[in-house]
TrEMBL record:
Class of the enzyme per the UniProt entry, highest EC level: transferase
UniProt-listed SUPFAM superfamilies: S-adenosyl-L-methionine-dependent methyltransferases
Lineage start: Bacteria, Pseudomonadati, Pseudomonadota, Alphaproteobacteria, Sphingomonadales
Keyword S-adenosyl-L-methionine: yes
Descriptive protein name: Ubiquinone biosynthesis O-methyltransferase
Organism: Sphingomonas dokdonensis
E.C. code: 2.1.1.222, 2.1.1.64
Record CDD domains: AdoMet_MTases
Family statement drawn from the similarity comment of this UniProt entry: Belongs to the methyltransferase superfamily. UbiG/COQ3 family.
Keyword ATP-binding belongs to the record: no
Residues reported to bind S-adenosyl-L-methionine: R51, G82, D103, L144
Reaction catalyzed: a 3-demethylubiquinol + S-adenosyl-L-methionine = a ubiquinol + S-adenosyl-L-homocysteine + H(+); a 3-(all-trans-polyprenyl)benzene-1,2-diol + S-adenosyl-L-methionine = a 2-methoxy-6-(all-trans-polyprenyl)phenol + S-adenosyl-L-homocysteine + H(+)
A GO molecular-function descriptor: 3-demethylubiquinol 3-O-methyltransferase activity
Alphabetical keyword list: Methyltransferase, S-adenosyl-L-methionine, Transferase, Ubiquinone, Ubiquinone biosynthesis
Length: 253
C-alpha cells in the first residue's frame, strides 16, 4: 500500500490525530443534503441497504440473535465511526442498540443531531475522530467507507480495536485498490459527478490483505469478507468479487 500517513492538515478538532482536515472539510460541505437521496450522497443511499443487510446477517450470526426480531440489538451498544449525517446510525438505533456515532466534520454532526431529533431517535453524536471514544467499549463497531480518508490507517484500526468490547463485532467496508475501482469510482463516478469530485484518492484505497494485516496486528481475527458489486441496471449487491468494494468482519482473536 502507498504511504497514507499525512503530515499536514491533520487533527483539526481536539487534537484527534486520525483526522485529515481537508477530508473533514470536503465531507462537511455535503452535510446539508446528506439525507437527500438525489443529492451529493445519492450513492450512499443506494449502498446503505446492502450494507445494512450484511450487518444484520453478521450480527445475527455472531450474537445468536432472533432473525425475526425488529429490535435484535436491544441491550447492546453500537458505535458508528465516520457516521456522516447518520445514514447508518439511525437504522442501528431502530434495531434496538444504544448508539454512539462520531464524525470529523462538525457540519455533519449538526445535521445528524437535527435529523435524529426530528425522527425521535436518541443517538449520542460526537464530533471528532476515533479518539473521541478512547477508553469506551462497544458490542458492535461499524466503520464504513472511512479508512481510506484517515491520516494513519494502521493507528486508526488499532483505535477501532480498542473500542471493541470483549465478544464484540467490528464491521468495516472500503473500496479495494484495483484497476476496476479506479475506473468505476474515480474516472466514471467522480468524472460524471455521480460522486462529488475529490471524494477519493485511489492511492489511499486499502486492499483486503492490507486491512487483514492491520486487523491482525490490532489483535483481531477476520471472520468474513464479502464484496460489493455495482451494476448500472440493478445497483449495488453483495458479491463474491472483492474487486470494487468489500465488507470485512472481525472479532477479538
Amino acid at each position: 500500500m502507498a504511504d497514507a500517513t499525512v503530515t499536514t492538515e491533520t487533527a483539526p478538532a481536539g487534537g484527534h490525530a486520525s483526522i485529515v482536515a481537508r477530508e473533514a472539510a470536503h465531507f462537511g460541505t455535503m452535510a446539508q443534503d446528506w439525507w437527500d437521496p438525489r443529492g451529493s450522497s445519492a450513492m450512499l443511499h443506494r449502498l446503505n441497504p446492502v450494507r445494512l443487510r450484511y450487518i444484520r446477517e453478521q450480527a445475527d450470526r455472531h450474537f445468536d440473535l432472533d432473525p425475526e426480531s425488529f429490535t435484535p440489538l436491544a441491550g447492546k451498544t453500537a458505535l458508528d465511526v465516520g457516521c456522516g449525517a447518520g445514514l447508518l446510525a439511525e437504522p442501528l438505533k431502530r434495531l434496538g442498540a444504544a448508539v454512539a456515532a462520531i464524525d470529523a466534520a462538525p457540519e455533519n454532526i449538526a445535521v445528524a443531531r437535527d435529523h435524529a431529533a426530528t425522527s425521535g431517535l436518541a443517538i449520542d453524536y460526537r464530533e471528532g475522530g476515533v479518539e473521541a471514544v478512547a477508553g469506551e467499549r462497544f458490542n458492535l463497531v461499524t466503520c464504513l467507507e472511512v479508512i481510506e480518508h484517515v491520516a494513519d490507517p494502521v493507528a486508526f484500526v488499532a483505535g477501532l480495536a480498542g473500542a471493541l468490547a470483549d465478544g464484540g463485532l467490528l464491521i468495516m467496508s472500503t473500496p479495494n485498490r484495483t484497476p476496476l475501482s479506479r475506473v468505476t469510482m474515480i474516472t466514471l463516478a467522480e468524472g460524471t459527478g455521480r460522486i462529488p469530485r475529490g471524494t477519493h484518492d485511489w492511492n489511499r484505497f486499502v486492499t483486503p490483505d492490507e486491512l487483514g494485516t492491520m486487523l491482525a496486528d490490532a489483535g483481531l481475527s477476520v471472520r468474513d469478507t464479502r464484496g460489493i458489486a455495482f451494476s448500472p441496471t440493478s445497483g449495488f449487491s453483495l458479491s463474491e468479487s472483492l474487486a470494487l468494494n468489500y465488507l470485512i468482519t472481525a472479532t477479538r482473536s
